[in-house]
Amino acid sequence: MAVCSEIDGWVFECFDLDTPATEFGKLEPIVNLWRSKFEGAKVPSWASFDFYDFKGWHGKVTKASIISYDPYDWQYDIFGTEFVELYGKDWTNKKGSDAESIHVDYDASVEFYKMACEKCLITRASGKVPWYGLRHKHIEIVELPLSNDGTTVTDIIEFIL
Fold first, then answer.
1. How far apart, in Å, are the Cα atoms of 107 and each of 50, 91, 115, 136?
2. 25: number of Cβ within 10 Å
3. Does residue 21 sit in helix, strand or coil?
């Protein structure tokens, strides 16, 4: 694990794909599920998962497709209800570039996530929610890479605590 950056009170960490799942605390079962979908050294694709794989986690999951690396952008395909409650809006079918206002420091966080996708890393972001009325709430988000060819990150799944 390495702290890759700190942005506006948030800590952004990077992890190699083989980091022990125990490093992710309560998200250990999700990391284990994700790892169970590997084929050898190949990162799983979204198609490797079934809706029922996420039983008990449905509201805590967001899935996004990487639509461009230059400039880096993504589209939210699934935006779980806990994310909707947190951000106050459903971002399903919206692009990341349309969501500038929901990020702590959009440019810095985009650079972090672009780097993580280019290097195919697991990430964890944690901090207090900066929105009015939620400033006391501390959250943790783990992002896991997905790949259609086993190596290039084409999608990501995020889970929130």
1. 33, 19, 12, 24
2. 12
3. helix
If one counts every other C-beta atom within 10 angstroms of the C-beta of residue 104, the result is: 16
What are the φ and ψ backbone dihedral angles of 159, each rounded to 5 degrees? -130, 140
Q: Tell me if the pTM is above 0.85.
A: yes
Q: Is 149 exposed, middle or buried, given 0-12, 13-18 or 19+ CB atoms closer than 10 A?
A: exposed
Tens digit of each residue's pLDDT (9 = 90 or more) over 106-157: 666 788 889 999 999 999 988 877 655 555 677 888 999 999 998 899 999 9
Task: Return all residues near 138 (Cβ < 8 A) that are at least 6 apart.
Answer: 126, 127, 128, 129
DSSP per-residue letters across 33-50:
HHHHT-BTTBPPPGGG--
DSSP class of 51: G
Q: Report d(CA 60, CA 160) in Å as an integer.
A: 5
Of 100, 104, 154, 94, residue with least CA distance to 130: 104
